[in-house]
């Protein structure tokens, strides 16, 4: 009788015990059981979503300097463990893959401990909505942002993992969206955007896209939808929108200085793309209507950079006006159709150089001055979350902005002249 009492008690206890306590979370560990601390380097890897580019993955692992690697995923198992630990020829202390399928698992102390010991974190592919939905507001997301900005680890992602690394994320909450759908109606129900998820250096005001050359059911690649995302960022949040994209077998690696290199096979169409608003905001971005972003056929300025085995081509993410090995393009949208034209051999035809802009003093106390060699059309100051705090339209080569109402801290200052743009970090201090 006592045996049956104990059995009944056990079954009743199971009925009222949360599921996460009954089922073990999936951890897959390869290598040393003891974490190490190394002189690692910060960085960022944005992978296009097909077979991983081995050269870019080596670049990422080398930045751990023999440290520990954590792979985060919403499904699957240990597919990256041996690949990272033995197959790429880079010595690391350990590789741990963690499957996270709920917010409770994202708050698991064992997950946070593994994350905090990492020198490299890589986010696998799948469906980015799983990451956004399960990580939002959790200790995992807080820990990742601390690691990125305080411990200064290298973080990477492929496909869905790449999607969540921009300040703005296409969440795919309602599934994927085709370019024809997004261009035909930028407020299509599948165009779901969220900002302020992860705080990754050089990704401010940026939305990413992967599988860029994949042909979808509308016989179009993903360029059009990416432009529609940017149009929404400008229209909804008054954000100086930028975009970074990678073709499927391509990976973009960004070092601590903000230099982005593109890895790919030189014999295949392995390109990285860097998109920025150029001439002005969309003329028409409204629900139910085709996007119009024409601006004299110069709405966006795009740097298209071919990848190779060494990642020899590069683009500067500090100022977005200089690169090597690529070509500049103009993109524009007319009645929901995306067009591309050549913009010249290099930026000298279209962009002011860094020397043509002066922002002083910086750090600033009570005010900041902005000077350009062309007429300034607008100057804006944003906080680190992308909220616009100051907006002026000088129509002059010089303007002075009062900062007395802003608290101490770090801000992003962006200035636009006649078809050119300059972005810099501004620090405000009290006297």
- Beta-strand fraction estimate: 25-35%
The SS-based structural class is alpha+beta
* Tally of separate helices: 11
**Main sheet: strand order:** 1-4-3-5-6-2-11-12-15-16
State the helicity in percent bands. Answer: 10-25%
Shape category: globular
Q: How far apart, in Å, are the first and last alpha carbons?
A: 80 Å
Poorly predicted segments:
1-23, 345-352
Alpha-carbon Rg, integer: 23 Å
> Sheet bearing the most strands, described?
10 strands, mixed
How would you state the average pLDDT, rounded? 90
- Topology, number of strands: 25
Summarize the structure.
The chain has 431 residues and is α+β, with helices and mostly antiparallel strands. It contains eleven helices and 25 strands.
Question: How would you sum up this structure, described in words?
Answer:
It is a single chain. The longest helix has 15 residues, at 223-237. With 431 residues, the protein is an alpha+beta fold. It is globular, with a radius of gyration of 23 Å. Residues 1-23 and 345-352 have low confidence and may be disordered. 46% of the residues are buried. The protein has helices at 2-15, 19-22, 54-62, 81-87, 103-106, 109-116, 128-135, 139-151, 160-163, 179-184, 223-237; strands at residues 27-31, 43-47, 68-73, 94-99, 120-123, 154-158, 168-170, 193-195, 206-209, 242-246, 251-254, 259-263, 271-277, 300-306, 314-316, 323-324, 326-334, 337-342, 357-360, 367-376, 378-382, 388-392, 396-402, 409-416, 421-428. The termini are far apart. Helix 6 (109-116) packs parallel to helix 8 (139-151). The strands form 5 sheets. A 10-stranded mixed β-sheet has the order 1-4-3-5-6-2-11-12-15-16, with helices on both faces. It has a 6-stranded mixed β-sheet with strand order 9-10-13-14-17-18. A 4-stranded antiparallel β-sheet has the order 22-21-24-25, with no helix packed on it.
């Amino acid at each position: 009788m006592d045996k049956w009492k104990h059995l009944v008690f056990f079954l009743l206890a199971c009925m009222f015990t949360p599921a996460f306590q009954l089922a073990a979370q999936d951890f897959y560990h390869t290598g040393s059981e003891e974490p190490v601390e190394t002189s690692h380097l910060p960085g960022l890897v944005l992978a296009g979503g097909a077979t991983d580019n081995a050269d870019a993955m080596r670049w990422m692992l080398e930045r751990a300097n023999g440290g520990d690697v954590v792979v985060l995923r919403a499904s699957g198992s240990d597919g990256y463990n041996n690949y990272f630990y033995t197959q790429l020829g880079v010595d690391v202390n350990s590789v741990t893959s963690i499957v996270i399928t709920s917010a409770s698992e994202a708050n698991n102390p064992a997950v946070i401990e593994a994350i905090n010991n990492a020198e490299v974190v890589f986010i696998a592919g799948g469906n980015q909505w799983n990451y956004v939905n399960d990580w939002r507001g959790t200790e995992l997301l807080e820990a990742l942002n601390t690691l990125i900005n305080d411990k200064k680890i290298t973080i990477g992602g492929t496909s869905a993992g790449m999607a969540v690394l921009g300040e703005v994320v296409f969440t795919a909450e309602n599934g994927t969206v085709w370019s024809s759908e997004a261009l035909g109606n930028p407020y299509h129900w599948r165009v779901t955007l969220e900002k302020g998820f992860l705080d990754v250096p050089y990704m401010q005001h940026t939305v990413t896209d992967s599988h860029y050359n994949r042909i979808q059911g509308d016989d179009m690649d993903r360029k059009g939808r990416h432009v529609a995302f940017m149009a929404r960022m400008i229209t909804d949040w008054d954000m100086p929108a930028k975009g970074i994209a990678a073709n499927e077998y391509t990976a973009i690696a960004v070092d601590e200085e903000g230099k982005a290199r593109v890895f790919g096979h030189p014999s295949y169409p392995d390109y990285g793309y860097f998109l920025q608003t150029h001439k002005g905001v969309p003329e028409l971005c409204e629900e139910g209507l085709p996007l119009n972003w024409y601006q004299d056929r110069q709405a966006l300025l795009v740097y298209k950079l071919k990848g190779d085995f060494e990642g020899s081509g590069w683009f500067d993410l500090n100022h977005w006006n200089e690169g090597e090995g690529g070509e500049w393009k103009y993109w524009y949208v007319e009645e929901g159709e995306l067009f591309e034209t050549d913009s010249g051999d290099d930026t000298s035809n279209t962009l002011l150089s860094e020397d043509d802009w002066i922002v002083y003093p910086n750090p600033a106390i009570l005010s900041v001055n902005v000077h350009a060699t062309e007429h300034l059309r607008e100057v804006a100051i944003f906080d680190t979350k992308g909220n616009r705090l100051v907006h002026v339209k000088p129509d002059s080569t010089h303007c002075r902005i009062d900062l007395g109402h802003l608290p101490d801290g770090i801000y992003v200052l962006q200035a636009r002249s006649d078809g050119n743009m300059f972005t810099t970090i501004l620090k405000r201090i009290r006297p």
